[in-house]
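Work Package 3 (structural annotation) set out to generate three-dimensional models for the target panel prioritized at the project kickoff. During this period the team completed the workflow that converts sequence records into discrete structure tokens, so that structures can be stored uniformly alongside our sequence database. As a representative example, we reproduce one entry of 206 residues exactly as it appears in the project archive.
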Amino acid sequence: MKKAAIIVFCIVTISCAFTDITSVTNPDHKNKLYGRILVISPFQELHYRKLFEYKLSNTFYDVYVDAFAGIDLISPIKTYTDFELRKILDQYNIDGILVASLTDYYESQTYVPPTQVTSGSVWVVSNYVRYSQTTKSIGGGTISRPRMKFEIRLYDRSSGEVAWLSQSFTSGNALADFVTLADSLSRVTIRTLIKEHRLLRSTTRK
């Protein structure tokens, strides 16, 4: 009942999004934890790349895992040699590289019929009672709800292999935008990584 009430509240009042995620772990890396993660989301639009990389890295930070937005460490307008890239990874002691790729984005449209509202009035003239009524149509139209799919790979820095892979589907209500969807995906992704014992939390940061 509580969950149903939350869903109803979400639908009618605020922007909300929900994420379903499926993940697998590479058995060769099932016992390794990652505590300093470089986050990369290869959007062509810099606005969305910054937004999503910051959202993910900040969500990691909130659960005491050190993470860095890729756009802050590796400039998208510079060509790096392998030596330069290794130097950056060494400088920040990166042990995992998380690459979050958008695979699909669309809007689901639903037609909502208008609501019929009838109002009336009654008045008395001499010995007669008169009544009139008016029916109006309120609302109705097409509601668009955003949907997006992501594939997220966590690479083991030392071997270059994929240590963890997830595919997700995030859906929002009519008030949701990309920020709302990104927030939902970030929280569910980090929650899943914690549940599957993939993260090493910082012991020095309080």
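Residues 108 and 145 are 5 Å apart (CA to CA).
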